[in-house]
Amino acid sequence: MGRHARNLLVCLHVVTSVGWMSQALALFALLVHGMTAGDPHAYEMAEVLDAEVLVHLANASAFTGLMLAPLTRWGYFQYWWVLVKFAITMIQICVAIFLLSPRLTALADGGQADSAALAAGTILMASAIAFQCWLSVAKPWKRTPWTATPPKPPAPPGLLVSFIIAVPLLDYLLASRLGHPAPLLTVLTAIAYPIWRRHRLARPGRIQASR
To answer: Any idea which UniProt keywords this protein has (predicted)?
Structure first.
């Protein structure tokens, strides 16, 4: 992967991650305001931010992180700090999809939901992203014990790199068209690229060259 393309993908990952954290903090502020001031409009605004902004930033942050791992020497399971980031990201997304967002929608619609628990969940989300930022900078711990020295990842075609960088925007446009979040290209690319990478690494020519 070329240096300029890598820097652009890293920049996109950083920007979307910071945006994800900032929106989580905004949700926390709105939920606290709604609880203390008894303002139902705060819950409505929080639900809009969650559905229209935070979800897209979270998808883009997770996707760019998932793609940076196989596109660089870090890999998916070679280093503990990468593996911990991956686990935290998957937990955050699952919790947001199945627990936080449905309850926030119910609260915005005037239903019953524990706003204090939602506020705690959003501040935990922001804290987890901040911890992941520290992991990316400090890169603590050693390699995982079950991995050998990783081979040099195959260079992806230039068109593929451009497509990867464009995927978050394309999925946002698709979601705008459908009226709800639909990270179809994100999921397909995140699944297809590791399969292509594994196939390229398994080619006899690459095995002999690595020796």
So the answer is: Membrane, Transmembrane, Transmembrane helix
Q: Does residue 68 sit in helix, strand or coil?
A: helix
Residues 56-105 pLDDT 10s: 999 999 999 998 888 887 878 889 999 999 999 999 999 998 889 999 99
Distance CA 85, CA 177 (A): 31
Q: How far apart are CA 17 and CA 88, in angstroms?
A: 13
Instruction: Give 35-64 pLDDT, tens digit per residue.
Output: 999 899 999 999 999 999 999 999 999 999
Global pTM reads: 0.86
Query: What single letter denotes the amino acid at residue 46?
Result: A
128, 17 Cβ separation under 8 angstroms: no
Q: Which pLDDT score, from 0 to 100, does residue 151 have? A: 59
Q: Are 27 and 122 in contact (CB under 8 A)?
A: yes
Contact partners, residue 9, CB within 8 Å, separation at least 6? 1, 64, 67, 68, 71, 161, 164, 165
Interval 150-178 mean pLDDT: 80
Cβ-based neighbours of 75, under 8 Å, separated by 6 or more:
69, 82, 147, 150, 153
DSSP string covering 153-192, please? PPPPPHHHHHHHHHHHHHHHHHHHHHTS---HHHHHHHHH
